[in-house]
Specification:
With 168 residues, the protein is mostly helical. The termini are far apart. The radius of gyration is 17 Å and the shape is globular. 30% of the residues are buried. The chain contains 11 helices and no strands.
Length: 168
């Protein structure tokens, strides 16, 4: 038995039933009162608000969580972000937009806007010298660099940006 509440299970699994099932928590989640549309809608909104509010403090995790949950509810706000602590954050911002654009919850116009903005950000990254904070350089491991044929952390961001652009 879990010491978690249904809400914690839902949020800890990115507001996704798939991950709750994958973690073997589904029966516990339902027993605790989960799988109720009105509750999940509220919890999802809280989750999105929480991570939207953390973009300035932890952009990588915030962008990752917002992309994974497909935060279409705040897409217009996300499309207007222009300030990034470094190019690592800028890259993961574009990655988040690609995640959201590839989700099933967007109409054609919003999907196009998200893809266009992601493409613009990635192209901007490729036109300049990549600048990374030390803490973000440390997040890019040698193994990660190896998978993208990169010799440096900056080259990793450049190569990953090229890869995303090639998947138009």
């Amino acid at each position: 038995m879990s010491q978690l509440t249904a809400e914690e299970i839902f949020k800890n699994n990115g507001c996704r039933h798939f991950y709750i099932h994958k973690e073997g928590m589904w029966n516990e989640y339902v027993r605790l009162g989960g799988n109720k549309r009105n509750l999940e809608k509220r919890w999802r909104a809280e989750y999105i608000d929480e991570w939207h509010g953390k973009i300035d403090r932890n952009p990588f995790v915030a962008f990752s969580n917002l992309g994974s949950v497909g935060a279409v509810e705040i897409l217009e706000d996300l499309l207007n972000i222009n300030d990034f602590e470094d190019d690592y954050a800028q890259f993961w911002y574009s990655y988040m937009l690609v995640d959201i654009a590839n989700g099933i919850f967007l109409n054609f116009l919003k999907r196009s806007k998200a893809k266009k903005r992601a493409r613009e950000v990635l192209e901007e990254l490729l036109k300049k010298k990549i600048e990374l904070l030390d803490k973000n350089k440390k997040a890019i491991t040698r193994e990660m660099q190896h998978h993208l044929d990169a010799r440096t952390e900056e080259e990793y961001i450049r190569n990953y940006s090229k890869r995303l652009l090639s998947k138009k």
